[in-house]
Write a structure and sequence with these properties.
Blueprint (H helix, E strand, L loop, with lengths): L6 E3 L2 E3 L5 E3 L23 H10 L2 H16 L8 E2 L8 H12 L4 E3 L10 H4 L5 E4 L15 H5 L3 E5 L6 E5 L3 E4 L1
Parallel strand pairs: 4-9, 5-6, 6-9
Antiparallel strand pairs: 1-2, 2-3, 7-8
Length: 180
C-alpha cells in the first residue's frame, strides 16, 4: 500500500490500517536461533519421507510435519510436546536427530526431567529453543522435576541460575520439546 508504514516480524507484515499479510521467505528476517540450512523452496527429502512412512502411522505424518514446521518458527505457540512412542528400531531416534540437525545443534539441548527441580538446570536451558530426550525410560515423565515441563512449554517465566556465578537468567517457557 503506497504510503503505508509496515512493521516486519518474521514473515508477517502489518500495514497502518491494521491488516496482516504473510510474506514469502526472506533471509532478511531476524531470528534469535537461526538454522544454518539455506532455504530452497524446491528441495525434497525422499529418504526422510520414507523414514516417516516406515516409522509413523499415515495420519501422524501430517501431524509431524506441522509440528516440525512450528519448530522452525520457534516459540511453541501451540504449547505442545511431541511424544514419539513405539517399538524399537522404527526410526524414532533417527527422526529426532534429523529434527535436531535441521533446527541446528546450537539451538538444541537435552531435556533431563530428573534434574529440572534442581538449582541450575533451568538456567542451563537459556538460549536454546528445542529440548529433546531420546530413548528415555518409561518413568521419564514421572521424575521429580517433570512437572516443570508445563512451565517450559506453557509460556511461563522461570528464573534460572548460572552455575559458578551470581547471575540469574530469564528463561521464558516457549521451548519446543520432543521425547522418544
Amino acid at each position: 500500500i503506497e504510503g503505508a508504514t509496515y512493521l516486519t516480524i518474521t514473515g508477517l507484515e502489518i500495514s497502518s490500517n491494521g491488516s496482516w499479510e504473510l510474506m514469502p521467505f526472506s533471509p532478511a528476517y531476524y531470528a534469535r536461533n537461526p538454522t544454518s540450512i539455506v532455504w530452497d523452496p524446491d528441495a525434497t527429502c525422499p529418504k526422510f519421507d520414507a523414514l516417516l512412512e516406515f516409522g509413523l502411522p499415515p495420519d501422524d505424518i501430517s501431524l509431524f510435519w506441522r509440528w516440525f514446521g512450528s519448530v522452525l518458527l520457534t516459540g511453541n505457540a501451540a504449547q505442545r510436546i511431541l511424544l514419539l512412542i513405539g517399538k524399537a528400531a522404527t526410526g524414532k531416534s533417527t527422526i529426532a536427530e534429523v529434527v535436531e540437525m535441521v533446527r541446528g545443534l546450537t539451538n538444541c539441548t537435552a531435556l533431563r526431567t530428573k534434574f529440572l527441580h534442581e538449582r541450575f538446570e533451568i538456567g542451563r536451558l537459556f538460549g536454546f529453543s528445542l529440548l529433546t530426550a531420546k530413548d528415555v525410560p518409561g518413568r521419564f515423565l514421572e521424575e521429580d522435576g517433570a512437572q516443570a515441563l508445563k512451565k517450559l512449554v506453557g509460556h511461563d517465566y522461570v528464573p534460572g541460575e548460572v552455575k559458578g556465578s551470581m547471575v540469574s537468567v530469564p528463561v521464558y517457557g516457549d521451548f519446543d520439546c520432543m521425547i522418544t
